[in-house]
Amino acid sequence: MTWKTQPRSDFGPLQAIAVPASSGPNSQQIGTTAKPPLAILLHGVGLRAEAWAAQIPPLTDLGFDVLAPDMPGHGQSAFTPLDNVQGYAALLGIALAQQAPDRDCLLIGHSMGAMIALELAQQHAKRCIGIIAMNAVFQRDAPARAAVQARAARLDGVNLPDPSPTLTRWFGAETSDPAPERKACHDWLTTVSPRGYQQAYRSFANSDGPSPLSLKTLRCPALFLTGAEEPNSTPAMSIAMADLAPKGRAEVIAGAAHMMPMTHVTETNSAVLNFAKECLHA
């Protein structure tokens, strides 16, 4: 699969890939009176909406209108000063209120996008029919917290760091013929706004994920999905969050690491679509 740049639409202050449901009763465009369910896909630090290219078509086939926004300072979204994960969620909440009021939403986030999605689910609990948190962080231990904060501290907002260490964490050691998904992530990491990357990474590094209380009061069904080989957003974290959420469950994808939506498309989509179907019929 290739991750080609796709057209964007305005989504409040952000730019987003917007794709209507492909068939059936939910095939209306955003803003009509039909109000079909909306799947919102939130990417992680340094990436862009195209990271969800493998998930968008099956979700539209299932009957969702799909919105995949670029995070501020990423992709085609302008930089917006924000202080923390809650600020990113609030910005998305404004966009939802402006352009998709009263729409039922399935929230799907990866890495920092998962942290934003979990916050957004609390801010808009009545509208959220389900949440999928992929490779989400929860209560890092002291060494992991120190490591991620050290990486954040080295960012100056002017120059982008060498992407090689990040790509190695995400995909393993580089080979003579890198996979298309690795090449795509390399391109995104080397073209993202330095200010946008610095701000997002610091917000990510300074958050330990949702609080236990917020998980205990999460009203909607929640799937915590993790790659078995993920060293930082570990399977144990997903299991712990699922245990706290009243309607939570955890699934672990064998052989997958951080970028499983791109590297393990079949397994990821199977988990996503099965859960999404449950949310539609709940």
UniProtKB/TrEMBL annotation:
Keyword annotations of the record: Transferase
Signal peptide: none
UniProt KW Transferase keyword: yes
Membrane-spanning segments: none
GO cellular component, as recorded: membrane
InterPro entries: AB_hydrolase_1 (IPR000073), AB_hydrolase_fold (IPR029058), AB_hydrolase_sf (IPR050266), Epox_hydrolase-like (IPR000639)
GO function terms (MF aspect): monoacylglycerol lipase activity; transferase activity
GO biological process, any: acylglycerol catabolic process
Name of the protein described by the UniProt record: Acetoin dehydrogenase E2 subunit dihydrolipoyllysine-residue acetyltransferase
